[in-house]
Amino acid sequence: MRRATTTLTVNPTFATYAWSTGATTQSISVNTAGTYTVTVTNANGCSTTTAATVSVTPQELCCAADVAFYSFAGQPDYTASSTGSLQTWNNATNPFGNVNTNNTNVFVNGVIAIPSGANVLMQNLRISFGPRGMIVVKPGGSLIINNCTLTGLQPCKTMWQGIRLYKQSASEGILSLENNTLIANALVGVSTQKLAYQPLETIAANITTIPDFANTNLSTIALADIWSDPIVQTTGGGLLTLNNTTFSDCFQSLNLAGETHLT
């Protein structure tokens, strides 16, 4: 994992330097958190030892460029089978190499699509999404998310795109969030509008105040512009059921529009 480099330097007037890393130079560069000591000796043979502690920030611990995201046959995106039969994704059987997510976190930086004819139950899974991460329930698709934790990258809480639920004519997507499901760090937790993809690589999720939608002075992206994008103004909708679900640290928890049926 690539991390920021810190340079430790001591006074150049000493004759010798002995660092705990084994280096004998006046300065060393480190990229791992810890305590580093150096023993310096002057021309008269007098020595003293000092120490410095280097910490690594949460952002450095999980930079999106350094995370090993799961690859679906070499691709970042995954489309569920549209056989119509129930597909249960849990800690024993799932598209992520059947990994037990209670022990190993799954990192996804692409689109998980639930197409027409797909019927998926996600149960007891923990997934951390990168900035491109998104779940899309398309018209005619059905997704139940039961007792799952879907977040941005931890512990730095970078944002992901969130869940999209779509409807087209009489065909609507079906989404149910239930049983202690947590949706965290999403740009929009669940949206029934076709929000355009947003480049979230540099946006942190721990926003303390929500800016006025007329204010586009955010340093990284004008989030207010999302809702003025022409693609957003198309008719959305779908069937959404919420039961014992928590939204945390999302820019917006729910963005419901069009013919949305909420239960």
Question: Main sheet?
Answer: 9 strands, parallel
Helical content stands at under 10%
Q: What's the β-strand tally?
A: 22
Order of helices and strands: EEEEEHEEEEEEEEEEEEEEEEE
**Strand percentage, roughly?**
35-45%
Mean pLDDT over the residues? 79
Q: Low-confidence segments, ≥5 residues, pLDDT <50?
A: 204-222, 229-235
Query: Structural class, judged by helices and strands?
Result: mainly beta
How many separate structural domains?
2
What would you report as the Rg, rounded to the nearest angstrom?
A: 24 Å
Shape estimate: elongated
Number of helices: 1
Q: What gap, in angstroms, lies between the N and C termini?
A: 43 Å
Protein described:
The protein has 1 helix and 22 strands. With 263 residues, the protein is an all-beta fold. It folds into 2 domains: 6-56, no CATH class; 69-262, no CATH class. The strands form 5 sheets. Strands 7, 8, 10, 11, 13, 14, 18, 20 and 22 form a 9-stranded parallel beta sheet that branches. Strand 16 and strand 17 (171-172) form a beta hairpin. The model is unreliable at 204-222 and 229-235 (pLDDT under 50).
